[in-house]
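Figure 3 (text version): structure tokens given as input.
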């Protein structure tokens, strides 16, 4: 199955023939998918990856306008509307804000736990020293 294919309908299955000549995959890494698409007519570029809000579309080096955002297919794959002609499409993964907030909350909780455990370890030691001192007198 190809990395991507062109279709008239966003939910169309992959073509049975060799349609990859019109799609040139420049990069296919964990956080970036870069392709050059030569479309004979407007339609959809279906990319073999799950649609997730952290993927951001860039067309010819610019952020895609709202009407050109990705579309989720019925099977969960990502579909990008394409116009007739040649376009460079980049899908770039950017961590969502909620991931950053979660990391900050986890870090804050870990630091608070560290401070509380250091405080708790210090306080019983002081109490035991007072008890030892009073029994030796």
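Below: residues designed for each position.
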């Amino acid at each position: 199955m190809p990395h991507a294919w062109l279709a008239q309908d966003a939910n169309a299955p992959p073509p049975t023939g060799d349609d990859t000549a019109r799609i040139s995959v420049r990069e296919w890494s964990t956080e970036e998918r870069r392709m050059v698409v030569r479309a004979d007519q407007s339609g959809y570029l279906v990319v073999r990856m799950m649609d997730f809000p952290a993927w951001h579309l860039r067309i010819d080096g610019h952020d895609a306008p709202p009407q050109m955002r990705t579309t989720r297919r019925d099977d969960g794959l990502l579909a990008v509307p394409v116009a007739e002609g040649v376009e460079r499409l980049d899908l770039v993964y950017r961590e969502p804000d909620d991931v950053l907030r979660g990391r900050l909350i986890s870090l804050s909780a870990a630091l608070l736990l560290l401070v509380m455990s250091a405080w708790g370890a210090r306080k019983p030691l002081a109490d035991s020293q007072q008890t030892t001192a009073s029994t030796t007198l």
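The mean pLDDT is 84.
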